[in-house]
């Protein structure tokens, strides 16, 4: 009786798998399934909690690596080891025990390289070897898809290559992050910088691209330019037009008016010399990948990329949409087939009704050759009930409707509009006016109708006839050239994906095109969140601005490969080769080591040119730097001793110590300073007992910290 143990990436995923079968028993760390056709002897589903294991920190290898020192660089362990992530020991021990008892182990983590990494990293740390391993590879958590996937488990050959690819990426990112962050920080601290920088292989070039846009805006010099604008009054209404002249020199524009014996503010007779009408068609948009969905959601609702990914994950776990972290805009004939079957149900869910213009697959959307691991984001076979839809949050409903409308659009008619160009002559000076009129909204009916801007309303043209006379008033229109606009968060996703446009080397452009720029579909939103958290950028009203800290980082990395998307492109290109079996993890890690050695050698000269900026951060205290005078002995100072605060004469005669944590709340250096100097703090929130409470802290006569509940402010 073969014992099957299945590892899901997280509890919610395990729950979704289990619900496709009959559950025998649920525990804190695993779910037992009853025997059935798929698992004749039953099966056990357990889970990671995201990254259940992680790479060890530098101090886990050598205690002296805890302190940041230039003479310790490069920090490169002889062998990279892993440990159980903090707070996850119990779950790891349960997984280890189940793996030891298993006859067959199934990797059912997310179907991408990080899913492979999570599974094999856990397996390696358990020490379990020599057991058959199979791979679940599905794009939907619907019950029938889950059952089908478990009946058609794949070999782990491809999975092992993806693990090598992911591990090479993880180790190299660790090496760059640890060494470059310490290198740049310590060199800048020598120049007076009081805080820390974090450097990352993908995050740093991303910040640099934002910095480049900042410089373009900052260095932009607006210039005036002049045009001749006509306001025409026809029988059916008014419209505007421009003469085909655009000059920086106003005198040249004035000379054109003089040549045609025209003056501003006078009324003239014009004539509609020509009327061109063209009917144009626009096909429905491509199906969504994660990045296109993130861009649309940011433009329409100002959702951040990470907010979209979180919302998509919830919809995926509710079995309403297909796998969210896809970079593909195509589906196969199989998905198209079930979409056709459910067309009526989907229309009801979106509260729309139309007759499909075609039920045959189009290569614009359906192309198996373009689908690799995952197909485009589409609704699942599960058509939601009104009750299920009403239970969605506003974000979930908006995102779901967008996916549904984009999917249904491929069955709808083209959007058809008529483009009209009017050529109006005034004293033989031609003016051009362009406008458009909807003929058939087609697939656009499925989406909310956008509110027309003032400019769009002005572009609506009245119905005029060829040869018609119109009243014309002319003026010289003065405009200013406009600087580039800051990126929005949604545009950051596109910028990261298409940064090849900003690279000069043609070979690098091709590589960036192949690997789709910086990061991956699954990681771009977390990279943006990281650089926000590191205070390199800030987002105001959806516009991304670089901070003083971000500018200092970019000045420090300028000219190095850390500022270049090309380095990341070459890395991703080689990582893909590892995943396909054409590259070597060892070679990749060795090349990363060479890159770090070069960085250590060249960076000191680069940092000499960098201006240390006031980044607005509280300066980090150096180890053993005095916090306050000791309130007891008055000879020593209270210092941070890593696990507690104590007098600097602690090992001699003074016994004053303060804890780092009290009733579940971290005591900061500022709190300790206030207690030493004023003997009490203001009321502080966040203490934990049977329930959360607030209190002031008091330093009593024995130099012990006590609570003062009587103090109200």
Automatic annotation (TrEMBL):
<dbReference type="InterPro" id="IPR013497">
    <property type="entry name" value="Topo_IA_cen"/>
</dbReference>
<dbReference type="InterPro" id="IPR003602">
    <property type="entry name" value="Topo_IA_DNA-bd_dom"/>
</dbReference>
<dbReference type="InterPro" id="IPR006171">
    <property type="entry name" value="TOPRIM_dom"/>
</dbReference>
<dbReference type="InterPro" id="IPR003601">
    <property type="entry name" value="Topo_IA_2"/>
</dbReference>
<dbReference type="Pfam" id="PF01751">
    <property type="entry name" value="Toprim"/>
</dbReference>
<keyword id="KW-0479">Metal-binding</keyword>
<keyword id="KW-0238">DNA-binding</keyword>
<dbReference type="InterPro" id="IPR005738">
    <property type="entry name" value="TopoIII"/>
</dbReference>
<dbReference type="InterPro" id="IPR000380">
    <property type="entry name" value="Topo_IA"/>
</dbReference>
<comment type="similarity">
    <text>Belongs to the type IA topoisomerase family.</text>
</comment>
<protein>
    <recommendedName>
        <fullName>DNA topoisomerase</fullName>
        <ecNumber>5.6.2.1</ecNumber>
    </recommendedName>
</protein>
<dbReference type="InterPro" id="IPR034144">
    <property type="entry name" value="TOPRIM_TopoIII"/>
</dbReference>
<dbReference type="InterPro" id="IPR025589">
    <property type="entry name" value="Toprim_C_rpt"/>
</dbReference>
<dbReference type="InterPro" id="IPR013824">
    <property type="entry name" value="Topo_IA_cen_sub1"/>
</dbReference>
<dbReference type="InterPro" id="IPR023405">
    <property type="entry name" value="Topo_IA_core_domain"/>
</dbReference>
<feature type="domain" description="Topo IA-type catalytic">
    <location>
        <begin position="159"/>
        <end position="600"/>
    </location>
</feature>
<dbReference type="Pfam" id="PF13342">
    <property type="entry name" value="Toprim_Crpt"/>
</dbReference>
<dbReference type="Pfam" id="PF01131">
    <property type="entry name" value="Topoisom_bac"/>
</dbReference>
<dbReference type="InterPro" id="IPR013825">
    <property type="entry name" value="Topo_IA_cen_sub2"/>
</dbReference>
<keyword id="KW-0413">Isomerase</keyword>
<keyword id="KW-0460">Magnesium</keyword>
<keyword id="KW-0799">Topoisomerase</keyword>
<dbReference type="InterPro" id="IPR013826">
    <property type="entry name" value="Topo_IA_cen_sub3"/>
</dbReference>
<dbReference type="InterPro" id="IPR023406">
    <property type="entry name" value="Topo_IA_AS"/>
</dbReference>
């Amino acid at each position: 009786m073969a014992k099957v143990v299945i590892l899901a990436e997280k509890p919610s995923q395990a729950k979704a798998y289990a619900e496709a079968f009959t559950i025998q028993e649920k525990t804190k760390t695993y779910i037992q399934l009853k025997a059935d056709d798929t698992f004749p002897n039953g099966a056990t589903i357990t889970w990671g909690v995201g990254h259940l294991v992680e790479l060890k920190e530098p101090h886990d290898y050598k205690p002296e690596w805890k302190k940041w020192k230039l003479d310790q660089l490069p920090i490169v362990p002889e062998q990279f080891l892993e440990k159980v992530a903090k707070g996850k020991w119990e779950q790891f021990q349960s997984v280890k025990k189940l793996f030891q008892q298993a006859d067959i182990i199934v990797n059912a983590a997310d179907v991408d390289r990080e899913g492979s990494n999570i599974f094999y990293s856990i397996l390696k740390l358990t020490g379990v070897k020599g057991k058959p391993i199979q791979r679940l590879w599905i794009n939907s958590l619907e019950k029938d898809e889950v059952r089908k996937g478990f009946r058609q488990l794949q070999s782990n050959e491809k999975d092992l290559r993806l693990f090598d690819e992911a591990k090479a990426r993880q180790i190299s990112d660790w090496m760059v992050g640890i060494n470059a962050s310490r290198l740049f920080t310590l060199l800048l601290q020598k120049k007076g910088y009081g805080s820390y920088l974090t450097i990352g292989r993908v995050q740093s070039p991303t910040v640099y691209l934002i910095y480049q846009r900042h410089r373009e805006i900052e260095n932009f010099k607006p210039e005036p330019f002049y045009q001749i604008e006509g306001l025409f009054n026809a029988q059916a209404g008014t419209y505007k037009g421009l003469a085909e002249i655009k000059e920086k020199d106003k005198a040249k524009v004035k000379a054109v008016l003089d040549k045609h014996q025209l003056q501003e503010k006078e009324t003239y007779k014009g004539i509609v010399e020509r009327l061109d009408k063209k009917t144009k068609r626009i096909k429905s948009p491509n199906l969504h990948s994660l990045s296109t969905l993130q861009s649309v959601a940011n433009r329409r609702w100002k959702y951040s990329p990470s907010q979209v990914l979180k919302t998509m994950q919830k919809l995926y776990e509710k079995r309403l949409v297909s796998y969210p972290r896809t970079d593909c805009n195509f589906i196969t004939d199989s998905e198209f087939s079930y979409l056709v079957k459910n067309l009526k149900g989907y229309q009801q869910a979106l509260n729309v009704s139309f007759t499909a213009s075609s039920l045959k697959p189009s290569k614009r959307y359906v192309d198996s050759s373009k689908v690799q691991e995952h197909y485009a984001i589409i609704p699942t076979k599960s058509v939601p009930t009104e009750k299920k839809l009403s239970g969605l949050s506003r974000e979930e409903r908006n995102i779901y409707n967008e996916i549904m409308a984009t999917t249904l659009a491929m069955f709808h008619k083209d959007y058809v509009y008529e483009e009209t160009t009017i050529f109006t002559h005034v004293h033989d000076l031609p003016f051009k006016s362009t406008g458009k009129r909807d003929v058939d909204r087609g697939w656009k009916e499925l989406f909310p109708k956008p509110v027309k801007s003032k400019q769009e309303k002005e572009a609506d043209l009245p119905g005029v006839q060829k040869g018609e006379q119109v009243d014309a008033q002319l003026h010289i229109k003065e405009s200013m050239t406009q600087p580039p606009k800051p990126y929005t968060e949604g545009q950051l996703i596109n910028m990261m994906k298409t940064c090849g446009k900003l690279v000069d080397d043609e070979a690098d452009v091709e590589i960036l095109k192949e690997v789709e720029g910086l990061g991956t579909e699954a990681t771009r939103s977390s990279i943006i969140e990281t650089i926000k958290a590191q205070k390199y950028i800030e987002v105001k009203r959806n516009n991304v601005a670089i901070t003083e800290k971000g500018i200092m980082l970019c000045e420090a990395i300028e000219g190095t490969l850390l500022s270049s998307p090309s380095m990341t492109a070459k890395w991703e290109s080689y990582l893909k080769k590892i995943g396909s079996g054409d590259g070597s993890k060892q070679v990749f890690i060795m090349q990363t080591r060479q890159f770090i050695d070069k960085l250590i050698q060249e960076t000191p000269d680069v940092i000499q040119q960098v201006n240390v900026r006031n980044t607005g951060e509280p300066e980090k205290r150096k180890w053993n730097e005095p916090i306050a005078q000791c309130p007891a002995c008055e000879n020593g100072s209270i210092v941070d001793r890593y696990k507690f605060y104590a007098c600097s004469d602690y090992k001699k005669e003074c016994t004053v110590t303060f804890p780092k944590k009290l009733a579940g709340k971290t005591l900061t250096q500022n709190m300790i300073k206030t207690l030493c100097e004023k003997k009490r703090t203001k009321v502080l929130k966040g203490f934990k007992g049977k329930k959360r409470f607030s209190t002031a802290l008091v330093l009593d006569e024995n130099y012990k910290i006590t609570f003062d509940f009587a103090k109200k402010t």
